[in-house]
Design a protein that fits this description.
single chain; 437 residues; alpha/beta; Rossmann fold; 2 domains; seven-stranded parallel sheet; six-stranded parallel sheet; 16% strand
Length: 437
């Protein structure tokens, strides 16, 4: 499929399910035409630069160079250049616009999903004879993201954004699927990995203790009051701040001025510690995801009290330090991995884990799926158990309801039939009102 599109100088979006080896498939394709290539640019999140390097070294004999770091110089004598989206944006004019590439590969291209972002603009300016977009989630929120990813792989395929407005309803969105289908290849785990161990997902409902519940309810009253009394222009900001505050209240009471994190009341942490004790006694390994680094700090405090060894990635480490943390976990030296959802939710191979904890849900289910599939992928030998501790009768239950609605968006654009299910979009004011009802 890639060879055919390459030979006809079209464009490709490889959108296989997360964990099915998109990186390896791309490397195999490059190796098959390596003798004919002059220069290939691979752009990916900085967090997975070293993963690309390791995969190329392991599965090919191709000459490559990582173009990243403070004292970088562009190597004109290397065929395969690896760089990050950050470097691409900074040097789109000074470096990349002056070079013609045989192939441009955009990995985890959902990072460029906003059509008006600097990253998407910079990627469009790069001259390449053939473009490959790699993503396990080609659409997360709305049709404009789907449009943008296809347009990055085949500029002009859909015309301008007016096309999005024309097909963003149930009757005509089949046009989008049919137009894109020759250039998108998507296989799911259920279709191709019949021997992959099962994934068991559990929503564990917990009740706040008396003190936590009082704290949560007081904040809910205060937040509603702020929203109701705010001007129309300020209301959206108040809603976002309130939503963030309530989500954090489900995790811990906001009394974290003491950096030793003593006397932190958290029903979820009690559940986590109790469950982890059993997991560690069985000699198993676990990954803990949270969107809040402060929460990871609090959890880390309890781990150190118990002398539990753990790795951690939260966005503050260098790429070499990140890889070191991954290696310690994969080699079973550290049985627990604390990961910030945004910093480590994509691009990592963590198949040593048998358990995953999603400590705080978010409305976009694709983000959680990406995180879980760090462990549920090729190479996993054990059943993967996923725990989502959810606070009963809280904003978290309503976030789960929004997740179900968002999952429909993915099916709308990537299914093979022409059903008439309702198209899902971004969060609306009605959604926010439901969250605070």
């Amino acid at each position: 499929w890639l060879r055919f599109l390459y030979e006809h100088r079209l464009g490709a979006c490889l959108a296989d399910d997360m964990g099915l080896g998109k990186t390896l498939q791309t490397i195999t394709f490059l190796q098959s035409i390596y003798s004919t290539l002059e220069r290939v640019l691979v752009v990916c999140p900085v967090t997975i630069l070293l993963n690309w390097e390791k995969e190329i070294e392991k599965f090919s004999e191709m000459d490559m160079h990582i173009y990243h770091g403070g004292s970088r110089e562009f190597p004109l004598d290397k065929k395969i250049i690896l760089t990050s989206y950050g470097v691409m944006k900074k040097e789109s004019e000074a470096v990349f616009a002056n070079i013609n590439f045989d192939i441009l590969i955009l990995d985890e291209v959902q990072h460029l999903k906003n059509v008006r972002s600097l990253g998407a603009f910079s990627a469009r300016k790069i001259k390449a004879d053939f473009r490959i977009c790699l993503t396990g989630t080609p659409v997360e929120n709305d049709l404009s993201e789907f449009y943008n990813i296809l347009d990055l792989s085949m500029p002009g395929i859909w015309g301008d954004l007016q096309f999005v407005r024309a097909v963003s309803n149930a009757k005509t969105r089949g046009i989008a699927r049919r137009t894109a289908s020759p250039f998108i290849l998507r296989r799911t785990k259920a279709q191709v990995l019949h021997d992959l161990p099962p994934k068991i997902e559990n929503n564990v409902y917990l009740s706040l203790n008396e003190e936590e519940l009082k704290f949560y309810q007081q904040n809910m009253v205060s937040i509603r009051s702020r929203i109701n009394s705010s001007t129309s222009s300020a209301k959206y900001g108040e809603i976002l701040r309130g939503l963030l505050q309530l989500r954090q209240n489900c995790l811990w009471q906001n009394r974290t001025t003491d950096t030793h994190y003593k006397n932190i009341d958290s029903t979820k942490i009690e559940f986590l510690l109790e469950t982890l004790e059993t997991i560690l006694e069985e000699g198993q390994q676990a990954i803990i995801f949270s969107q809040f680094t402060t929460y990871l700090d609090i959890i880390q405090h309890y781990f150190r009290e118990r002398h539990w060894k753990f790795s951690r990635i939260d966005g503050s480490q260098s790429i070499n330090k990140r890889q070191e943390q991954v290696d310690l976990f994969q080699s079973q030296k550290n049985p627990i991995f604390l990961i910030s959802l945004k910093a480590g939710g994509v691009g990592l191979n963590l198949t040593a884990a048998s358990y995953v904890f999603i400590m705080d849900p978010w409305w976009n289910p694709a983000v959680e799926s990406q995180a879980i599939d760090r462990a549920h992928r090729i190479g996993q030998k054990n059943t993967l158990t996923v725990y989502r501790p959810i606070i009963k009768d809280s904003v978290e239950e309503k976030v789960l309801k929004l997740q179900e609605e968002k999952k429909q968006l993915f099916a709308d654009l990537l299914s093979t039939d022409d059903d008439d299910q309702v198209f899902s979009g971004r969060l609306t004011m009605k959604d926010f009102e439901m969250l605070f009802s």
